[in-house]
């Protein structure tokens, strides 16, 4: 069974594949993305494909693979890079990596929120540049979580884990939005299901943890930011395309919102001359939500197990229901 792995992945995952009987592994053994031509060539004749969120798996790739492709295993919980309709039509099974990265991503979301609202990168820069001249009562002030209202867009696994971590900071109210109320998930935080407009208007902190779908693409736009309070902080750890970045730039540059923290952008990587990078009130990270050694290793093992189970026609540890 030929398997194509589109990137260098943690050794534990690759070892599982290499040691599996009957499995012949071909890999793009680099930290850099596989060039499209290499992807199309590498996948030809493969029965299994282990891919990353940065690989666009569309009709062209599926055609290049041919009818022998039976399983796609993505090293991610997000699956917006997969052409699911086409994959389903061809009877290909898909594995993904939910749960195992929830804690790491929630932790990073909280770190990013605190960095943005307490202006950590800006303040640290002042220490290095000599801007720190004395203790000043009105200098480097930001916004804290005590008695705040936090609005969560997408109260899924990561959204709940973020709320669980923020609650002990003294948050007084949680709001959330999504495709419908989730009373069981919301009960732990006393979170109230509200329309997106009300979430924007009432939240001191907005945290985006939804999946990228046609319904969430561009959800945070000019109208959304114009409803937010001038003192509010916006954080996105889902996917860049949930946000209209031009609208976010205007809102930040004109002081219509206080600050933003982004772990995800459009495109990725964000060009170094992008206007958002010129703003002092915007903290941008290079999509590192799940980047702890342990989490990435566990993700790789899970992705390998999903792939092997799919190749053997067995139940996968985590199969996406198409
Ligand atoms: P879940 O499926 O558990 O949660 C996704 C949530 O999105 C659901 O609660 C769902 O709500 C919500 N959602 C769907 N449609 C809408 C909508 N129209 N408006 C608001 N919310 C909506 O996934 P996870 O929590 O495990 O992961 C969420 C996303 O986080 C992933 O898809 C991925 O894109 C991103 N991610 C980013 C990482 C990073 O490194 N920055 C790391 C890991 C994940 P409902 O149930 O009501 O439909
Ligand atoms: C995912 O899994 O979807 C993240 O974006 C990376 O871990």
Automatic annotation (TrEMBL):
Q: In the UniProt record, which is one GO cellular component term? A: cytosol
Q: Which organism is this protein's natural source?
A: Taeniopygia guttata
Coiled-coil regions, chain positions: none
Q: Which domain of life is it from?
A: Eukaryota
Q: Where is the D-isomer specific 2-hydroxyacid dehydrogenase catalytic domain?
A: 3-320
Q: Which GO terms describe its molecular function?
A: glyoxylate reductase (NADPH) activity; hydroxypyruvate reductase (NADH) activity; NAD binding
Q: Is Transmembrane helix found in the keyword set? A: no
Q: Which InterPro entries match?
A: D-isomer_2-hydroxyacid_DH, D-isomer_2_OHA_DH_cat_dom, D-isomer_DH_CS, D-isomer_DH_NAD-bd, NAD(P)-bd_dom_sf
Q: Is Glycosyltransferase set as a keyword in this record?
A: no
Identify the residues that the record assigns to the D-isomer specific 2-hydroxyacid dehydrogenase NAD-binding domain, covering every copy: 110-289
Q: Which family does it belong to?
A: Belongs to the D-isomer specific 2-hydroxyacid dehydrogenase family.
Query: What keywords are assigned to this protein?
Result: Oxidoreductase
The identity of this protein, by name, is: Glyoxylate reductase/hydroxypyruvate reductase
